[in-house]
């Protein structure tokens, strides 16, 4: 499916035709618990504000509980001038994300709205800006959860009238302007989007490209890492054929630069350049193939999460996480449970990491302890509720936006379309048929589509797994069930399930997309007990041994890369402690076990 755009979500670049300026910094901020902002015309300019860093998640910056747990409307403002030489161009403000929904105003005029907190929002402010005087950019945000929006949850009103988020998912509901903000130009006649598909021949690779732009002539060049042009073509669509190509290989990335230019009436009017990796992805029988070679996935399901920062984008965290992942010899991660900031994928492209890119469809079971209930057979008729049509619309929109944003990254080799929904009803099957259909229609590369299944999704009951190209299982035998003194049961129960999957002869790869135990760095015990580091090691070893017995298991992504913040509860010790690394990114004992296995 081709998405027609009035603007462009392409990541900002600068060249002779395009310029941009970061709007990151200290913004003005105000909570609006009574939701009086629109009636009092806060869009014209905020008063009585406090300062707030952008990018930032507001929650952990405060010292009082009310502000940390604030749920409802909140407003941001920054003021800016337009550089003098930026006239005659389209002016865009581009947010990496606005969590979870936003209305954008420029100089008091509503520009656009957006639903969904983990994908870019672009506002065309050309008609609203003052060329010479100061401009006011005001954003109204809202972080309430509902069963009609992603990620799924509810919002509770306390007796005091305060709203609090009740996520049906297991991570803190961080919100705010959490990613980079750019003021940027787009030429009036511009390149607005492009897609690419690689195919491999005996000694050549062909990059088929297709550009969306204003009417004109497109030239496409592919340059190698030394800047030499290795292939060239003219036309909105065409082929760039590379002899003796350097392929983008797992953990041995090679990136070319794709340079696109637009000419109108003989004049060069726009250019766009980006890194491109030449690689193919396929699923064949029980194997996942990258460049026709089988790959076994080793790595983690992650979160965007850090002390104080919450979910705020920060290059140093990205860098440290990749260094830690490389140190353990990992080659893959899943962006559980939402698309991450775009810069994560840029680094994954450069480092040769495989990424399973996940849409924020998490919490599709009415439970605030979903993670524990999932293993115990709870069923809530989630897909039979009246909000499902609206939810489905939002889900499909976000699948489209995610694929639109990430389709040209070589690191992204699969789309994860959900995490742990109820899958045993015909309503669920109908719902997900449409989600998969949308994803397959949106991706010209036809990457494998999957989703992560919890324990209720068993071989004989799950109605959704046949839609998947490979099957991702989240399993906690030995933690939420068959744990502690019953640990011996875990092997029996786990293998019994795997035998059932095997007996189905699906000839599809299986990937363990989650498995792990909570543990505290302070806890050591011989013999092990739950929450000790020894227990985590024994649990992981048990899983590794079992994985090695089944040929259809083609990957192991541990839950979780690092400890992370969640809502409070008796099952959480200031967050989820299943990290192989601490929240500060230092290794727990298990990190050494994992490093050795993946060597
Ligand atoms: C799974 C969820 C994940 C949780 C994890 C856990 O997919 O979000 O954090 O369990 O309980 O059910 O640690």
Automatic annotation (TrEMBL):
Ranges for domain Glycoside hydrolase family 2 immunoglobulin-like beta-sandwich: 191-279
| InterPro entries per the UniProt record, alphabetical | Beta-gal/glucu_dom_sf, Galactose-bd-like_sf, GH, Glyco_hydro_2, Glyco_hydro_2_cat, Glyco_hydro_2_CS, Glyco_hydro_2_N, Ig-like_fold
Query: Which GO biological process entries does UniProt record here?
Result: carbohydrate metabolic process; glucuronoside catabolic process
- GO molecular-function annotation terms? beta-glucuronidase activity; carbohydrate binding
Residue ranges of the TM segments = none
Organism domain of life? Bacteria
- Look up the EC number in the record and give it: 3.2.1.31
Q: Provide the Glycoside hydrolase family 2 catalytic domain boundaries.
A: 281-599
Q: Which residues form a coiled coil?
A: none
- A Pfam family name for this chain? Glyco_hydro_2
Query: Carries keyword Transferase?
Result: no
UniProt keywords (A-Z) are: Glycosidase, Hydrolase
Q: Which residues form the Glycosyl hydrolases family 2 sugar binding domain?
A: 21-187
What Gene3D superfamilies does UniProt report for this protein, alphabetically?
Answer: Galactose-binding domain-like, Glycosidases, Immunoglobulins
What NCBIfam families does this protein's entry cite? PRK10150.1
Regarding protein family, the annotation reads: Belongs to the glycosyl hydrolase 2 family.
The name this protein goes by in its record:
Beta-glucuronidase
């Amino acid at each position: 499916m081709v998405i027609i755009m009035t603007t462009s979500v392409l990541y900002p670049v600068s060249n002779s035709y395009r310029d941009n300026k970061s709007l990151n910094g200290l913004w003005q901020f105000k909570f609006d618990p009574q939701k009086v902002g629109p009636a009092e015309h806060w869009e014209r300019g905020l008063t009585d504000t406090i300062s707030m860093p952008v990018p930032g998640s507001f929650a952990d910056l405060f010292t009082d509980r009310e502000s940390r747990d604030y749920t409802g409307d909140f407003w941001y403002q920054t003021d800016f001038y337009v550089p003098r030489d930026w006239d005659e161009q389209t002016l865009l403000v581009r947010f990496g994300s606005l969590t979870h929904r936003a209305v954008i105003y420029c100089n008091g005029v509503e520009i656009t709205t957006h639903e969904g907190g983990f994908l870019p929002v672009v506002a065309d402010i050309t008609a609203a800006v003052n060329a010479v005087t100061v401009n006011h950019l005001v954003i109204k945000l809202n972080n309430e959860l509902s069963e009609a929006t992603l990620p799924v949850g509810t919002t509770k009103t306390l007796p005091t009238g305060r709203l609090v988020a009740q996520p049906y998912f297991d991570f803190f509901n961080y919100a705010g302007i959490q990613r980079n903000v750019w003021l940027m130009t787009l030429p009036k006649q511009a390149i607005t989007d492009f897609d690419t598909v690689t195919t491999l021949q005996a000694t050549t690779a062909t990059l088929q490209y297709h550009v969306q732009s204003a009417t004109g002539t497109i030239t496409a060049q592919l340059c190698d890492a030394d800047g030499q042009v290795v292939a060239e073509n003219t036309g909105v669509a065409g082929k760039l054929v590379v002899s003796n190509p350097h392929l983008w290989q797992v953990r041995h990335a090679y990136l070319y630069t794709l340079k696109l230019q637009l000419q109108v009436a003989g004049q060069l009017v726009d250019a766009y350049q980006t890194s491109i990796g030449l690689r193919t992805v396929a699923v064949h029988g029980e194997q996942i193939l990258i460049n026709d070679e089988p790959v076994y996935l080793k790595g983690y399901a992650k979160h965007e999460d850090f002390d104080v920062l919450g979910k705020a984008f920060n290059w140093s965290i990205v860098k440290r996480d990749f260094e830690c992942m490389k140190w353990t010899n990992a080659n893959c991660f899943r962006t559980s449970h939402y698309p991450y900031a775009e810069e994560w994928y840029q680094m994954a492209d450069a480092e040769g990491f495989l990424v399973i890119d996940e849409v924020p469809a998490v919490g599709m079971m009415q439970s605030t302890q979903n993670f524990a209930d999932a293993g115990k057979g709870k069923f809530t008729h989630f897909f039979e509720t009246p909000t499902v049509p609206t939810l489905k619309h939002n889900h499909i929109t976000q699948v489209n936006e995610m694929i639109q944003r990430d389709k040209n990254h070589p690191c992204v080799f699969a789309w994860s379309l959900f995490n742990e929904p109820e899958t045993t009803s015909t309503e669920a099957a109908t719902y997900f048929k449409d989600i998969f259909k949308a994803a397959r229609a949106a991706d010209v590369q036809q990457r494998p589509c999957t989703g992560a299944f919890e324990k209720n999704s068993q071989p004989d009951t799950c109605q959704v797994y046949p839609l998947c190209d490979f099957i991702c299982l989240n399993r906690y035998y030995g933690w939420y069930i068959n744990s502690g003194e019953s640990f011996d049961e875990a092997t029996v129960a786990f293998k019994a399930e795997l035998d059932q999957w095997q007996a189905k002869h699906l000839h599809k790869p299986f990937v363990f997309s989650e498995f792990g135990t909570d543990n505290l760095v302070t806890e050591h015990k011989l013999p092990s007990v739950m929450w000790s580091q020894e227990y985590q090691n024994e649990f992981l070893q048990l899983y590794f041994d079992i994985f090695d017995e089944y040929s259809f298991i083609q990957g192991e992504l541990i839950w979780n890369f690092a400890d992370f913040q969640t809502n409070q509860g008796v099952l959480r010790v200031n967050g989820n402690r299943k990290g192989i690394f601490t929240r500060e990114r230092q290794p727990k004992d298990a990190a050494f076990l994992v490093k050795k296995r993946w060597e």
